[in-house]
Amino acid sequence: MQYIPLVGRILYASLFVLSGINHFTQLQSLSRYAASMGVPASTWAVIVTGLMILLGGLSILLGYRVKIGAVLLSVFLVMTAFMMHPFWAMEEPLQAQAQMAHFMKNLSLAGAALIVFYFGSGPLSLEKSAAKNG
Length: 134
Prior knowledge:
Blueprint lengths: L2 H23 L1 H10 L5 H21 L3 H19 L8 H27 L6 H8 L1
C-alpha cells in the first residue's frame, strides 16, 4: 500500500513536468497562442507558467515541499482554465465543447493538487526520508 501514493505522484506529476519542459521548447508557438487568447506579456507569461508547472510537477514527483508544488499547480490550473479555455465565449458548438472539456480538466487537476496539499506526499518521498534521517 505504501507504493500507491508514489505511483499516483508519478502519474500526476508527469503531465506537469513534460508540459513545463514543453513551455520552453515550444516558447514561440505557445506565446503566440497565449497572445491570441488575450494574455498580456504572453512570452513572459509562458515562461513564468512553465516554471510554475515544472517546479510544481517536480515537487510532487519527488515528494519534496509538496504543499508549495500543489499551490503552484493549483494557481496555474485555475488561471489557465479561465484565461485559456473560455468555452462560454465560443460561438461554434464543437469548439465550445472542446474548450469546456479543457476547462473542466484543469479544474479537476486543480482539485487533485489541493488533495495533495492537504494529505501530503505519502510515505515514499524526499520529505519523509529527510524527516526520518533528520
